[in-house]
Design a protein that fits this description.
The protein is mainly α. It has four helices and two strands. The chain has a two-stranded antiparallel sheet with strand order 1-2. The longest helix has 39 residues.
Length: 149
Amino acid sequence: MNCANHPAEAAVAQCTECGKGLCVQCVQNRQKPVCAACREKLRSQTVGSIVFHLLVYVGLFILGYKWNFMEGNGFPDGRFASGYTLMAVVSGWQFLNSVVGWRLVQGDLTAWAIYYVLKLLLSVIVGFFTAPFTILWNLIKLIPFMMRR
């Protein structure tokens, strides 16, 4: 098998995404061997995921700010607290998925319901503390992709 990017070179590895052959030059300095087409596809998926999460943060903050469900709960600025709380749920969920990585893979409907209710409650608590850092981390991850253009 020859390299998909350099047809004159012999393949020493396969792309982990599509199985195409890759030469020594293509796999050098890579954490995992990926061909150019798959690398671009993974790059666009990563950018899409980051932008999606940032848009969800903004959308939920605006929704919470408009909804103002924390008005009268002893908060001096209920609108800001409402927006931050909704945004914190997604931040906590994203943080838990990236740090813990636990996923329920099997179980009956009751097990799934308990898992997701507990994860949602934990996301609210964790997200309250991690929201600014999670949003900043998403922005930092986006910078290298923006610099390549």
